[in-house]
UniProtKB/TrEMBL annotation:
InterPro entries: GH, GH13_cat_dom, Glyco_hydro_13_N, Ig-like_fold, Ig_E-set. Signal peptide: none annotated. One of its GO terms (cellular component) is cytoplasm. This is SBE1 protein. Residues 166-247 form the Glycoside hydrolase family 13 N-terminal domain. The gene is SBE1. One of its GO terms (molecular function) is 1,4-alpha-glucan branching enzyme activity. GO terms for biological process: carbohydrate metabolic process.
Length: 448
């Protein structure tokens, strides 16, 4: 999977690069995330440049060098990591799981880029920035100190961005035991509820660690594939709420019930029945980067000629061939992450790790990607990390119990709410928020 950052970056700025040369044109088509904030001291976001895919082929490396050359000294401050991912060539024999057989999904090899330079490349490239040299130096120090802190506490940035292997629902490969973890410091108690325990709030309690992460381990197959799950949390005032897990892989409402809120669904295709669509694993080689990109932007749900929300499988069957025939070699997909409000065009995200259920399942989305690669087209997707839906019952905003910023995904007060978008703003200075967002980027890269 190739990535394209959302037009609004982590902290609401716009980042575009020059349009000189083929590489510059490509860069201008791909928005990247600015690793720094303009919201004041202390609000620095970790740059995403450290998650760099290892380039396996000479052609890819040459293309990479051309791109870096287009940016010049500027790459020391804002490094186009998401653009760099485009140049990854296919690894041979990509593994995938077969029907009802659990095995590892394709995961590109990642390595960390060391911190180099003094962060003043932009000052050198643009004389108008010279008066602000001191502020650039401050921003670089905040970034360097944060990077050092993460390395010291997590072992490496790569390991830090692997939260999906520990948080949310995970499965022991040997025993099949299911472990569920959720970071929720303000909760007085947490239990796991769902179809598997008849929504009994007292049946499956979680234990809390010193950092506010709750955990429970269940026997193998205790939760069936594609069955509803939520957690029940007791707030400081004694009231209880049911919420969708933050790291859930699939989430959708009861389509037969008016006004239904979203439920999380436990996703384990190794348990899939014969009637369930199960992706057979990636077989088509990932296309090499062409000398010139022709990008077709599409919204899967709105791509049907009929008055309905189109599915991933229908898009793969009916739309991708037309895009290919029209001469495009890349498709950029909008609104892939789960969102409750369709009128947001997909940008009021509720569950960042889940594909939009209106168009199908995670396996069906993988089938779309596989078909695009079979047709020789690259795939770009939008990931939204600049804000999140304010719907508390449907997704991540449900984690806000009015706690301090240090225990929350979001900033508090007016700083945590975007009035024009009616959405919540992440607290990017928080360790667990950085883990969540960086892990989200890596998860989409490895999963699809």
């Amino acid at each position: 999977m190739r990535f394209r950052g959302h037009v609004r970056n982590l902290l609401g700025h716009f980042s575009r690069f020059g349009e000189e040369s083929c590489a510059g044109s490509l860069a201008s088509a791909l928005h990247v995330l600015n690793p720094y904030s303009s919201r004041g001291e202390g609000h620095a976001a970790l740059g995403l440049d450290e998650l760099e895919v290892v380039l396996e082929h000479t052609d890819a490396e040459e293309s990479m060098n051309e791109l870096w050359g287009a940016f010049g000294a500027m790459d020391e401050l804002v490094i186009p990591a998401l653009t760099a991912v485009v140049f990854v060539e296919p690894l041979p024999n990509q593994p995938g799981y077969k029907r009802n057989v659990r095995s590892a999904q394709f995961r590109p090899q990642l390595r960390e880029r060391p911190v180099v330079g003094d962060g003043l490349g932009l000052v050198v490239a643009d004389p108008s920035c010279v008066p602000f040299r001191g502020h650039f130096e401050y921003r670089w120090k905040v970034y360097s100190d944060l990077r050092k802190h993460i390395t010291e506490t997590a072992g490496s940035l790569t390991e830090f961005a692997s939260g999906f292997r520990k948080l949310g629902f995970t499965k022991d490969e040997e025993t099949g035991a299911i472990t569920y973890r959720e970071w929720l410091p303000p909760a007085k108690s947490v239990s796991l509820v769902g179809d598997f325990n008849n929504w009994d709030e007292g049946a499956t309690p979680l234990a809390r660690d010193a950092f506010g992460t709750w955990e429970v381990t269940l026997p193998a197959k205790a939760i069936a594939h594609r069955t509803r799950v939520k957690f029940c949390a007791t707030k400081h005032d004694g009231s209880t709420v049911h919420r969708v897990p933050a790291w859930i892989r699939w989430s959708c409402p009861d389509l037969g019930k008016f006004g239904s809120t979203y439920d999380g669904y436990y996703w384990d295709p190794s348990q899939a029945g014969q009637d369930d669509y199960c992706f057979e694993g990636f077989q088509a080689a990932r296309p090499a980067l062409p000398s010139s990109l022709r990008i077709y932007e599409a919204h899967v749900g709105m791509s049907s000629t009929e008055p309905k929300c189109n599915s991933y499988l229908e898009f793969a069957r009916d739309v991708l061939p037309r895009i290919k025939e029209a001469g495009y070699n890349c498709v950029q997909l909008m609104a892939i992450m789960e969102h409750s409000y369709y009128g947001s065009f997909g940008y009021h995200v509720t569950s960042p790790f889940a594909v939009s259920s209106r168009s199908g399942t995670p396996d069906e989305f993988k089938a779309l990607v596989e078909e695009a690669h079979r047709l020789g087209m690259l795939v770009l997707i939008d990931l939204v990390h600049s804000h999140v839906s304010s719907n508390a019952d449907d997704g991540l905003n449900g984690m806000d119990f009015g706690q301090p910023e240090g225990e929350s995904y979001f900033m508090t007060g007016e700083r945590g709410y975007h009035k024009l978008w009616d959405s919540r703003l992440y607290c990017y200075k928080n360790y667990e928020v950085l883990r969540y967002l960086l892990s989200n980027l890596r998860w989409w890269l490895e999963e699809c």
